[in-house]
Specification:
Mean pLDDT: 84
Number of helices: 21
Strand content: 15-25%
Structural class: alpha/beta
Helix content: 40-55%
Shape: globular
Radius of gyration: 27 Å
Number of strands: 23
Length: 599
């Protein structure tokens, strides 16, 4: 019996050991293959060359990111990785190609890009510049065009559509998800303090539908953004804006491809190979396989897109315009988004080593976040101005709202795109209270002992007292007063004037220009040119910060921390509990706009 036990035990141990060893070999083999693939890819990039009649290929697929983004390794392992579009790199490549006589055209492969309107318009603007150069052309092909793809593709000289494909033009819609009913069933209450009638970020946790104020502001800024989008499409396709509205009401995704051509939305109906054969003709090649195609990644290796801008006529100057990216949610600590302490350090480093700087442009793409971190970043930027005496501009991307506007308001000049979402000057605090969930649903009770009456504040297991509510509301109101003071000082106006357009209200870039929250319309490129023109800079470099130094080791480290079995769709209840946990651990005062889904 003992002998059988030991034989069985040793057999099991051997099986476990061999399985572990086999698993280790598989992991090592996967790593070698992965690194080998990367090395092969790097060799391909290094081997890429630019020759006469080359074509720059822009793959409109996935999320449009401001800068290079780390790929999702679960998707890499599954062979489904689409890193999306790197806006900085793409824009740089287009402007470089415009000045490169070896690049004759651009091939837009429209495979489903997802991005904010401001990002789309920056690419569209760059394509127009490219087309304005002698003998340059842009051709777009899509099996099916999303509205986001089509806004970019509409600027092409030729728009090809698959014979059974379609173009989706539907206008804009915004969806807000409300959790209040679920919270009631769970016995969870959200204790809210806010300043601003339009500060609707708290509504999903307190209401079951949009408030009249929230609906009014969304209709207003979305109407402004759609007006700009339909005007761009109409201009590019030589149609009237009213025609685009009429088309948007037709549910175009249900219509045949021929009708897209009849309405003037596309110029050619044909399969991909037919469009690519035409590209071969444009480049004077007998077949498409002979065309020298360059991806943006490959072409960017012929110049340093992160050290210099896409302005080849002014590179290698004596002074540098620093472009500092502030992208994502503003947080006090962490590794993602705009981390207050890290951003302050970046700004301080630029101030300390400013002898070679001509100015600073903050590129903001943020819905806001921590009020505390926003104030720290604002103060660091003020110190930069005082210590260096250099100009400080802001370029707003898709969104620069609430805390995103807080860190922008002190700039000498603020640029925004007409479709930029900005404003939302307001403050709120939200503390979850789960006593009902614990007591009534889970049968859990708690007892607390404190030395002072507010010793357990803030607590999520008991509701706030009236004293605590009053203190928190006063805290919120002081934050709002400080926020509006910062805006008034930065905009050189009165606090009362700011409060008239504040109240947490969200504006489009066009509306913000009209009410004085921004100074000029234009992209990051226009902000760079604007600073140079305003300060008589004839020779200058452009350098982007924070400096990105990617490595294979970084990617492998990320792989070790990733659960590749994560479900692709997060369940609503899990998302809600995650948000509650975030509220519990997050700063108690927030400068951020509401979460909405715009389609």
């Amino acid at each position: 019996m003992i002998k059988k036990f030991f034989l069985s035990f040793l057999g099991s141990m051997a099986a476990i050991w061999l399985s572990g060893l086999l698993f280790l070999f598989i992991i090592i083999f996967a790593i070698i293959a992965f690194i080998g693939g990367i090395g092969s890819g790097l060799n391909d990039i290094a081997a890429a060359k630019v020759e006469d009649n080359s074509v720059l290929v822009i793959n409109l697929e996935g999320t449009i990111n401001e800068r290079k983004a780390t790929p999702e390794l679960s998707a890499v392992i599954a062979g489904q990785s689409t890193q999306g579009l790197n806006l900085n790199q793409t824009i740089s490549c287009i402007y470089r190609a415009a000045h490169d006589s070896r690049i004759s055209g651009i091939y837009l492969k429209c495979n489903g890009s997802l991005g904010g309107s401001a990002s789309l318009y920056e690419i569209e603007e760059a394509l127009h510049f490219f087309k304005s150069r002698p003998s340059k052309w842009v051709l777009a092909y899509g099996d099916n065009y999303l509205q986001t793809d089509y806004i970019i593709a509409s600027s092409a000289d030729e728009i090809w559509l698959n014979p059974i494909g379609t173009v989706d033009i539907h206008g804009l819609s915004a969806t807000t998800i409300f959790y209040t009913g679920l919270l009631e069933k769970l016995g969870v209450k959200m204790q809210i303090m806010r300043v601003g009638t339009f500060k609707s970020a708290i509504e999903p946790y307190t209401l079951k539908e949009m408030s009249p104020a929230s609906k009014l502001q969304q209709e207003s800024y979305m109407g402004s953004i759609w007006d700009d989008a339909k005007n761009k499409i109409a201009t590019n396709r030589q149609l009237n804006a009213d025609d685009i509205d009429r088309i948007a009401d037709m549910i175009t995704i249900t219509m045949p491809a021929d009708s897209m051509k009849n309405m003037g939305l596309v110029s050619n109906i044909g399969y991909r190979h037919e469009a690519e054969s035409h590209i071969a003709e444009l480049t004077k090649k007998s077949k498409f396989s002979e065309v020298n195609l360059l991806s943006t990644t490959q072409y960017s290796t012929t110049f340093n897109a992160e050290d210099f801008s896409y302005l080849p006529e002014v590179e290698n100057g004596k002074k540098t315009i620093a472009v500092l990216y502030a992208t994502g949610e503003i947080v006090d600590n962490g590794s993602e988004g705009i981390v207050g302490s890290q951003m302050v350090e970046e700004i301080n480093n630029l101030a300390e080593d400013s002898s070679n700087l001509a100015g600073l442009i903050l590129r903001v793409n943020s819905p806001g976040g921590s009020a505390f971190a926003s104030e720290q970043i604002w103060e660091a930027l003020e110190q930069f101005k005082k210590e260096t005496g250099l100009p400080f501009y802001v370029s707003m991307g898709d969104v620069a709202a609430s805390g995103g506007y807080y860190i922008s308001c002190g700039a000498d000049v603020i640029y925004a795109e007409p479709s930029t979402i900005t404003g939302s000057i307001g403050i709120f605090g939200m503390i979850p209270e789960i006593q009902g969930l614990l007591n009534n649903h889970l049968g859990i009770t708690t007892s607390t002992v404190t030395t002072n009456r507010n010793g357990n504040f803030p607590s999520i297991t008991s509701p706030m007292t009236e004293e605590q509510k009053q203190k928190m509301q006063a805290y919120i109101e002081r934050g709002y007063d400080l926020f509006t003071k910062r805006c008034a000082a930065g905009r050189h106006t009165t606090q009362d004037s700011i409060k008239m357009i504040a109240e947490g209200r969200v504006w489009s870039g066009s509306q913000a220009l009209a009410n004085g929250l921004v100074d000029r319309m234009g992209s990051l490129r226009e902000a760079i040119y604007g600073m140079a023109a305003d300060h008589q800079l004839t020779e200058y470099n452009v350098k982007f910060y924070p400096i990105i130094e990617p490595s294979v080791i970084d990617i492998m480290l990320e792989m070790s921390e990733m659960d590749i079995t994560d479900a692709p769709i997060e369940q609503t209840a899990d998302a809600l509990l995650k948000r509650i946990e975030e509220f519990k651990d997050s700063p108690k005062i927030q400068c951020r706009m509401e979460d909405i889904i715009i389609q």
